[in-house]
Write a structure and sequence with these properties.
The chain is 31% helix and 24% strand. The chain is α/β, with parallel strands linked by helices and 374 residues long. The strands form 3 sheets. Strands 3, 5, 6, 7, 8, 16 and 17 form a 7-stranded mixed sheet that branches. The longest helix has 24 residues. The structure holds NADP nicotinamide-adenine-dinucleotide phosphate.
């Protein structure tokens, strides 16, 4: 195995800033690959772990390395790896913060990362690293919500022409990164997709495979969607964006078919917590957050709609990770059935640029994914 020097953006404890410093490269396990990262993407969850890690990821062993999304070149493979060889271009889902791994060597924010082979996908030459880095966590989160047995349990996508199921899935938040992947995965699995976005992104989400799109900022969006969906056989809703779960409950309770909402987001935003002096934020936000979860649970109960919360890396605990990353995504990217979306927004060219990238994301993006090239 090659022994290059490695640098990482470390987080040394809960609520700490990121610090770039040397990082070791560990021996590979049998089913692992070592990847030289060329592009990483930042996600809202990275900021949430940094600020509220003691609440959302209390198991994390510090010093840690955040980040889930990578694209780069394979430099070494474990003894039992069959899908990849040194020199291959890949994208991958980094699991450093997940309870499954919980080790810095598997965090994305470094030059060399260890990936599990079933969380990596071969990249066609025409897809750049910065395009590819937008996909891993968004694909994973969308796949969890759509396909896991304890979520919407839809049929998984096939590589060939989709066979229409005649059924419809509601994907709230189609122009988010997660929504962009969810629309494509659900359409590839044969479902009609009805979604929401701002009007400037209507054509974007239709281009990804949505058949109908509604403006989520419109005060009449719920009755308008109920009216449109009246004749449709629903298989459930994937709710993306703060507060979307409540609206999806209201819609599904007035439609025919399955009444289940898979929620990617909390009822209130939690990605705006400050890094320091959190006392006032926690004092004002946590009681409201608890009340909003309780309100959502009561609403769901009274409207006879089931709700599920998504953990975006849960697909790696069973076989769905391999199904999506190894068996489906590579051929689907090669054939163009899945396209990298949304467009990357390059925030810098070094590990030192990651805090700036996280700040950019926190200010808000529209149909863009913030990426750093390495
Ligand atoms: N549970 C998990 O494991 C998991 C994993 C990944 C992400 N998430 C969550 O999923 C959500 C999306 O993450 P992301 O990275 O995909 O976000 P993102 O791409 O950064 O989201 C930006 C988009 O959000 C849309 N948006 C803003 N407010 C909205 C609302 N109230 N309803 C629907 N869409 C809204 C905007 O659409 P327009 O520009 O069209 O207005 C914008 O395009 C976040 O809440 C994130 O925390 C959860």
């Amino acid at each position: 195995m090659p022994n290059p020097s490695n640098q990482a953006a470390w987080i040394n404890g809960k609520g700490q800033p990121l610090v770039v410093a040397a990082a070791p490269i560990l021996q590979l396990g049998a089913h692992e690959i070592l990847v030289r990262n060329r592009a990483i993407a930042v996600n809202p969850f990275d900021g949430v772990v940094q600020t509220l890690g003691s609440m959302v990821t209390p198991w994390v062993a510090y010093p840690a390395i955040l980040g889930s999304d990578v694209a780069g070149e394979v430099v070494a493979v474990g003894a039992s790896v069959t899908c990849f060889k040194p020199g291959d271009r890949v994208l991958g889902l980094a699991l450093g913060i997940d309870r499954l791994a919980n080790r810095a060597a598997e965090g994305a924010f470094q030059q060399y990362v260890i990936l599990r082979q079933d969380a990596a996908t071969a990249l066609p030459d025409r897809i750049s690293f910065e395009q590819a880095a937008v996909l891993p966590l968004a694909v994973a989160t969308a796949a969890c919500g759509l396909f896991l047995d304890d979520q919407l349990a839809l049929q998984t996508p096939s590589i060939g022409q989709p066979v229409p199921t005649g059924k419809t899935v509601l994907i709230w938040g189609g122009s988010t990164s997660v929504g962009s992947c969810a629309i494509q995965l659900a359409a590839a699995a044969g479902y009609e997709v009805v979604t929401t976005a701002s009007p400037k992104n209507f054509e974007y989400v239709k281009g990804l495979g949505a058949s109908q799109v509604f403006d989520y900022n419109d005060a009449q969006v719920v009755p308008a969607m109920v009216k449109y969906l009246g004749a449709h056989e629903m298989v459930g809703a994937l709710a993306i964006g703060a507060g979307s779960g409540t609206l999806c409950i209201d819609i599904l309770s007035q439609c025919k078919g399955r009444r289940i909402v898979a929620m990617a987001s909390a009822p209130l935003p939690i990605d705006d917590a400050p890094l320091t002096r959190q006392f006032v934020w926690k004092l004002t936000h946590l009681p409201r957050l608890a009340a909003s979860f309780l309100g959502l649970a009561i609403r769901a109960r009274f409207r006879a709609v089931a709700t599920r919360s998504i953990w975006g890396t849960a697909l790696m605990r069973g076989t769905l990770g391999k199904t999506i990353f190894n068996d489906f995504l590579g051929p689907a990217l090669a054939s163009g059935r899945i396209v990298p979306a949304p467009q990357p927004l390059v925030a810098g060219h070094s590990l030192e640029a990651i805090p700036h990238a996280m700040a950019l994301l926190r200010r808000g993006v529209s149909a863009r994914k913030v990426v750093v090239l390495l």
